[in-house]
Design goal:
79% helix, disordered N terminus, mainly alpha
């Protein structure tokens, strides 16, 4: 099957014209993914990592079944899944990888702190870059200068990671339980990076097949909640032990649900970035969440207070090097020759699964088709949204302030900045793509 010239032209033009949308989506993703990790600091208040992860993923599950419904409706989601049923299994697999990675991040935060763990697990961009080149033709056909930007950025990320890992071994570091705890935290953070980097394979596979990100994440959450629940049951002593831990954690569950909600917003932006500029470029941009994680950890939770001057320089310098690498990768816009290679990957998916190439090309270019439009709103969609609001309200009535020292002034500032990114990114996505 060969796509005719108008479709080929649309497939090539779409990603290029939407490069700015993908970049903005990646930056907005960084802001909200960074904010989402702040509630995991509750692990320091006596909750086990499995309870923290389960609470957060439960919030993710509720949000991922309501935000897409509110934006596009059940008609659009059902039509998209019916047209591409083979991607349901891939979405569940991606959710399972996410759940394992998220649990590892909680261990990493406990052992080395949020400011250190964040940049370490953001090595997922290197894994995503490899898979994007190997499986989806990203960077193929690019000029040497584009390769230099992407590979130079990847090298910078590695250097920054090494600096941050060394900072955790510094005598003035924040971890007081000895080298074993630091090593465990580093391995957990790097393991999460590998899991998340591999998770982007189903992402890209879905979007070069024309699947809407809102439909993908709705199925994605089934895999992540099921895996997280299985881990919690296995390590918390079965149903009775898990129920007892959840009852003890009830005053903190609101904050974990809130973290899950923030994560969904960030991940949705990340999905659109991966769709419109590829995983090799979109994921490093979303990994600017390390800057936000550093800000939350240092300004709100005062994590860097006990570090020596040298360790401060290592943490800040390593973060800046990694951010520079991510920016270099993100600004390497795909030329027409590379987008032709992307189109070949799209044609492969169309042949393999019997997809309509014209419809797929339109979806890849951010165009809405009648079959996948929002459709008429049935009454049960309002019930879904109302149920989600009710869950948050009930948890809020049972919530208690965490027994953790926080700077509320900086919390207000960072929250306000995150809302600005949400407003700008959401408005641009709606005007340019109608969330297609």
């Amino acid at each position: 099957m060969t796509i005719d010239s108008p479709v080929a032209e649309a497939a090539t033009r779409g990603p290029r014209s939407l490069h700015g949308v993908g970049v903005i989506s990646g930056l907005a993703a960084g802001a909200w993914l960074g904010a989402a990790e702040a509630p995991t600091k509750l692990v320091a208040a006596g909750l086990t990592p499995f309870i923290v992860s389960l609470g957060m993923v439960a919030g993710v599950f509720v949000a991922r079944w309501t935000v897409p419904v509110a934006l596009r409706g059940t008609h659009s989601l059902a039509s998209d899944l019916k047209a591409r049923p083979h991607l349901i299994a891939w979405a569940i697999l991606a959710g399972m990888l996410w759940a394992v990675a998220n649990t590892l991040t909680v261990f990493a935060i406990r052992d080395v702190g949020l400011s250190i763990a964040f940049p370490l697990w953001n090595t997922n961009s290197l894994i995503g870059l490899l898979w994007g080149w190997l499986l989806f033709n990203e960077l193929r056909g690019s000029a040497p200068k584009d390769w230099a930007k992407v590979l130079g950025g990847a090298a910078a990320i590695v250097v920054g990671t090494c600096l941050l890992a060394y900072a955790t071994q510094h005598p003035g570091g924040t971890v007081a339980d000895g080298g074993g705890g630091r090593a465990r935290g580093i391995l957990a953070a790097l393991g999460a990076g590998v899991m998340w980097g591999t998770m982007y394979i189903p992402y890209r596979k879905a979007y070069i097949s024309g699947m809407n990100p809102l439909a993908f994440v709705t199925v994605f959450t089934v895999g992540e909640l099921g895996t997280t629940l299985a881990l919690a049951l296995a390590y918390q002593g079965g149903p009775a032990g898990l129920q007892a831990e959840l009852a003890r954690a009830l005053p903190s569950l609101f904050w974990l649900f809130l973290g899950g909600f923030c994560w969904v917003l960030g991940d949705l932006f990340q999905q659109y970035a991966a769709k419109y500029i590829g995983i090799g470029r979109g994921i490093p941009l979303s990994n600017t969440n390390q800057l936000w994680g550093l800000a939350w950890g240092a300004l709100v939770f005062n994590e860097l207070a006990t570090l020596s001057t040298e360790a401060h320089l290592l943490v800040v310098g390593g973060s800046l090097v990694m951010i520079a690498g991510a920016v270099a990768i993100g600004l390497a816009e795909a030329p027409a020759s590379e987008q032709s290679s992307w189109r070949l990957a799209m044609e492969r998916e169309c042949r393999r699964y019997g997809l309509d190439p014209v419809e797929v090309a339109a979806a890849v270019g951010g165009e809405e088709t009648p079959e996948t439009g929002p459709g008429r709103r049935p009454w049960w969609e309002f019930l879904i949204v109302a149920a989600a609001v009710g869950i948050f309200a009930w948890l809020g009535m049972n919530a208690a302030m965490p027994a953790i020292a926080m700077d509320f002034r900086w919390m207000a500032v960072l929250s306000a900045l995150s809302l600005v990114f949400l407003a700008v990114g959401g408005t641009i996505l709606w005007r340019r793509t109608r969330f297609s």
